Description:
The chain has an eight-stranded mixed β-sheet with strand order 7-6-5-8-1-9-12-11, sandwiched between helices. The chain has a two-stranded antiparallel ribbon with strand order 2-10. A two-stranded antiparallel sheet has the order 3-4. The protein has helices spanning 47-59, 67-72, 111-122, 133-140; strands at 4-11, 15-17, 35-36, 44-45, 60-66, 86-90, 105-108, 126-130, 146-152, 160-161, 177-180, 185-190. The longest helix is centred in the N-terminal third of the chain and has 13 residues, at 47-59. Helix 2 links the parallel strand 5 (60-66) and strand 6 (86-90). Helices cover 20% and strands 28% of the residues. It has 193 residues and is α/β, with parallel strands linked by helices.
Amino acid sequence: MGKVVMYASVSLDGFVADENDQPGPLFDWLTSGDVPLDGSGVLKVSQKSYDYLRPYWDQIGVTITGRHVFDMTDGWDGKPPSGIDHVVVVTHRPAPEGGDPDAPFHFVDGIEAAVVKAQELAGDRIVEVAAGDVGGQVFAAGLIDEVRMDVIPVVFGSGKRYFGSVHAQQLLEDPDVVIPGDRVLHLRYRVRR
């Protein structure tokens, strides 16, 4: 089985979105560089960010996210973001009606079931868990192997927290990756077991 990695861009004070559920400048670094990150022509980053992020993206087989993000993005118009093969959506509600039955979205009730389904779909590839409420629940359940953050030089003051509503202390290993990019600091931590 592949690693389970919690990932997102985050403000210096630990938020993945502001109080209005908007990312503000958290994704500006993804469009302000010279090096195309994918084939869209929209995502362009610095060479340092590309060298760090592209190999990681190529290893992702499945992303786990919550229903709130799925609904906010309108299901990414039926195509998982960043070329991901599958998205597992944690929800207590049924799948939306009228969606493409062949779209690679899987609706699962509960975080443990989501991780099991994602690992089944990903095989040896990485299972990425979007930070925030669902990511925090997966982290609190001890199911995360690694935490990756793209830290952006902005302070939100309030909003949606990277670790959701986790209130228990959890030690991580020292960062094994610290890469300064343009308007971003890439960090990677292994979760201490």
